[in-house]
Amino acid sequence: MTDTILIFDTTLRDGEQSPGCSMNLEEKLKVAAQLEAMGVDIIEAGFAIASEGDFEAVSEVAKQADKAVIASLARAAIGDIDRAWEAVKHARRPRIHTFIATSPLHMRVKLNKTPEEVIEAIERTVGHARNLCEDVEWSGEDATRSDPDFLARAIETAIKCGARTINLPDTVGYATPETYGAMFKDMIGRVPNADKAVFSTHCHNDLGLAVANTLAAVMGGARQVESTINGIGERAGNASVEEIAMAIKVRGDVMPFRTNVVSTEIMKSSRLVQAVTGFQVQPNKAIVGANAFAHESGIHQDGMLKDSSTYEIMTPESVGVSTSNLVMGKHSGRAAFRSKLEALGYELGDNAFQDAFVRFKALADAKKAVFDEDIVALVDDEVLRGHDAIQVKDVEIHCGTGPARAILTLEIDGVEKTAATRGNGPVDALFNAIRTIVPHEASMMDRYEVHAVTGGTDAQAEVSVVLSENGRTTRGTGAHHDTMVASVRAYTNALNKMLVKRGKRAPDAMAG
Ligand SMILES: CC(=O)SCCNC(=O)CCNC(=O)[C@H](O)C(C)(C)COP(=O)(O)OP(=O)(O)OC[C@H]1O[C@@H](n2cnc3c(N)ncnc32)[C@H](O)[C@@H]1OP(=O)(O)O
Ligand SMILES: CC(C)C(=O)C(=O)O
């Protein structure tokens, strides 16, 4: 029988560790629901001890989850493990994921512990976790820079104390496929009780090898892979789930495994994560990049017209890329819009559908051709900010060779407020107006990015803004055919997220 490789998705935990990548509760619940629809087996919903917000997110994802196992990360500390359990215990299938570093460098410098003390910590904490929860995962952080004899001892101890999954992370992306695959073979071969646990991979992409290393580990005996949508994560990111799932699916001839991933849901997951994090994937990104199924040169186009398998090793449809050819414009009605949304993988409730339709009509009035990318940007923008405390009502701007003047109206918890301000250019004037209406100390980091959703001078703009306050960063995004409106939507989106991060609902709490 073909072995199933379990997919452990850590978009909501390690993915969220990308600077500026934070998600609010509503966004995390949407991503978690989509991950389940995509068939991931385990969702790491956060690090419950890290903050009240993380705790709430893990608890709510746990309550919402239907089939997936829900995990929270915890250090090798009783307080962390108790907090993780309090959050995941609501799930039908809870898991506590506890970790401690096993490399000489991390043990000495970071933990200030001897190897013996680390073994004692594993005994104490894995045992404690197992008393609370049947399903315990243990990770040996920085496994790839650990002494193999010590690592084997640590793994044996964790399994003896009740861990069912043993994760051997390449925490700093140092491994190569040969060394990482060999490490799994070695550990599974030498640890006496290895057959009592599922071995797991967790790879970072510092050398661009995360997916290759993951697949090498699978060949070496791993049966769980930890990864994130679009490969987001700490530093250069994690192994990307869509690449792993499709590599296993397409190259079953050399990797005789299967996953439970519903591949046609991949694109929808990728787009959702791009929308909530504001991290656009590069156009040439495998599987989900805008050019992944584009053919520009004549010889390729000729081959494609004769038989698409000449230049495509998988079909766009197999990863959920829409090939619907309904042309959308100002004469399109609700039926066509609904059908287009379905083809793009969206299922909106009645209110969200109506709001999106109104915005689609406004866009179609302003823009000659409305492309699929326009609709994706518009829907993601509309749907994801429905419950924001600060909403954009009206934007007016006068600019030219002198200072720019802005008149901005925001609605804050149902009350409209207007400010008229000047600035060094239109964006500066508008952002000054936001700061006048909602005084706050969060500063804008040097990332103000504008991206044209399609070609043409009437293209929609997608703007992303990063705010920073006391070491916390939030990224906001906004889409509109007017770049200034998109900019205000992006800034207020980041501000709304900052409010949630601070755990304070009232916008005037932003001040100082
Ligand atoms: C490889 C990874 O991705 S690990 C996960 C990384 N994710 C995060 O860090 C999530 C966000 N983190 C946080 O919110 C905070 O760091 C917290 C809440 C976890 C801890 O905050 P603080 O108590 O202020 O500690 P701080 O962050 O300054 O330092 C971490 C402490 O944890 C200790 N620690 C680190 N890993 C472990 C571990 N696995 N087990 C036990 N202790 C650990 C460190 O040695 C340090 O202890 P020290 O203060 O005695 O030197
Ligand atoms: C805590 C572990 C799983 C981790 O994220 C890493 O080592 O990168």
TrEMBL record:
<dbReference type="InterPro" id="IPR013709">
    <property type="entry name" value="2-isopropylmalate_synth_dimer"/>
</dbReference>
<keyword id="KW-0028">Amino-acid biosynthesis</keyword>
<comment type="similarity">
    <text>Belongs to the alpha-IPM synthase/homocitrate synthase family. LeuA type 1 subfamily.</text>
</comment>
<dbReference type="InterPro" id="IPR013785">
    <property type="entry name" value="Aldolase_TIM"/>
</dbReference>
<dbReference type="InterPro" id="IPR050073">
    <property type="entry name" value="2-IPM_HCS-like"/>
</dbReference>
<keyword id="KW-0432">Leucine biosynthesis</keyword>
<keyword id="KW-0464">Manganese</keyword>
<dbReference type="GO" id="GO:0009098">
    <property type="term" value="P:L-leucine biosynthetic process"/>
</dbReference>
<keyword id="KW-0963">Cytoplasm</keyword>
<dbReference type="GO" id="GO:0005829">
    <property type="term" value="C:cytosol"/>
</dbReference>
<dbReference type="InterPro" id="IPR002034">
    <property type="entry name" value="AIPM/Hcit_synth_CS"/>
</dbReference>
<dbReference type="GO" id="GO:0003852">
    <property type="term" value="F:2-isopropylmalate synthase activity"/>
</dbReference>
<feature type="binding site">
    <location>
        <position position="238"/>
    </location>
    <ligand>
        <name>Mn(2+)</name>
    </ligand>
</feature>
<dbReference type="Pfam" id="PF22617">
    <property type="entry name" value="HCS_D2"/>
</dbReference>
<keyword id="KW-0479">Metal-binding</keyword>
<keyword id="KW-0100">Branched-chain amino acid biosynthesis</keyword>
<dbReference type="InterPro" id="IPR000891">
    <property type="entry name" value="PYR_CT"/>
</dbReference>
<dbReference type="Pfam" id="PF08502">
    <property type="entry name" value="LeuA_dimer"/>
</dbReference>
<feature type="region of interest" description="Regulatory domain">
    <location>
        <begin position="391"/>
        <end position="512"/>
    </location>
</feature>
<protein>
    <recommendedName>
        <fullName>2-isopropylmalate synthase</fullName>
        <ecNumber>2.3.3.13</ecNumber>
    </recommendedName>
</protein>
<feature type="binding site">
    <location>
        <position position="14"/>
    </location>
    <ligand>
        <name>Mn(2+)</name>
    </ligand>
</feature>
<feature type="binding site">
    <location>
        <position position="202"/>
    </location>
    <ligand>
        <name>Mn(2+)</name>
    </ligand>
</feature>
<dbReference type="GO" id="GO:0003985">
    <property type="term" value="F:acetyl-CoA C-acetyltransferase activity"/>
</dbReference>
<dbReference type="GO" id="GO:0030145">
    <property type="term" value="F:manganese ion binding"/>
</dbReference>
<keyword id="KW-0808">Transferase</keyword>
<feature type="domain" description="Pyruvate carboxyltransferase">
    <location>
        <begin position="5"/>
        <end position="267"/>
    </location>
</feature>
<dbReference type="InterPro" id="IPR005671">
    <property type="entry name" value="LeuA_bact_synth"/>
</dbReference>
<comment type="function">
    <text>Catalyzes the condensation of the acetyl group of acetyl-CoA with 3-methyl-2-oxobutanoate (2-ketoisovalerate) to form 3-carboxy-3-hydroxy-4-methylpentanoate (2-isopropylmalate).</text>
</comment>
<feature type="binding site">
    <location>
        <position position="204"/>
    </location>
    <ligand>
        <name>Mn(2+)</name>
    </ligand>
</feature>
<comment type="subunit">
    <text>Homodimer.</text>
</comment>
<dbReference type="InterPro" id="IPR054691">
    <property type="entry name" value="LeuA/HCS_post-cat"/>
</dbReference>
<comment type="pathway">
    <text>Amino-acid biosynthesis; L-leucine biosynthesis; L-leucine from 3-methyl-2-oxobutanoate: step 1/4.</text>
</comment>
<dbReference type="Pfam" id="PF00682">
    <property type="entry name" value="HMGL-like"/>
</dbReference>
<dbReference type="InterPro" id="IPR036230">
    <property type="entry name" value="LeuA_allosteric_dom_sf"/>
</dbReference>
<keyword id="KW-0012">Acyltransferase</keyword>
